[in-house]
Amino acid sequence: MGGIGRETLIFLYALLAGMSVLFVYYILICLRRVIRHCAAAAGAEDMAFWLWAAGFIFGQMYDATYGSIRGYFLFGIAAGAAVGYALIRFGAKISVKFQKTLEKCRKNR
Asked: What is the pTM of this model?
C-alpha cells in the first residue's frame, strides 16, 4: 500500500500511540490514589513516566515513519490523547449514571 493509504494508517497508528500514553498515565494516577506518596516520590514517578513516554513515542515514530518527523504523526498523537480523554470522561459519566440507577433500585427494594 502506498500513498495516502499508507499515510492514513500511520495517522491511525499515531492515534493509538497517543491513547496508549494517556491510558498509562491514568493508570499511574489510579495507583497514586491507592498508594499514597510524598511529593518527591510523585515527582520521581512523573519524571520516569515522561522519560518512558518520550522513548515510547520516539520508538513508535521511528518504526512508523522510518525516522522522519512528520507533522501529521505529531497531530495524531495529540488527537489520540484527546480522543482517549473524551472516552475516559464518557465512561466516567456512564459509571455515575449506572451507580445512581443502582442506588435507586436498592432504595425501592
From this structure: 0.79
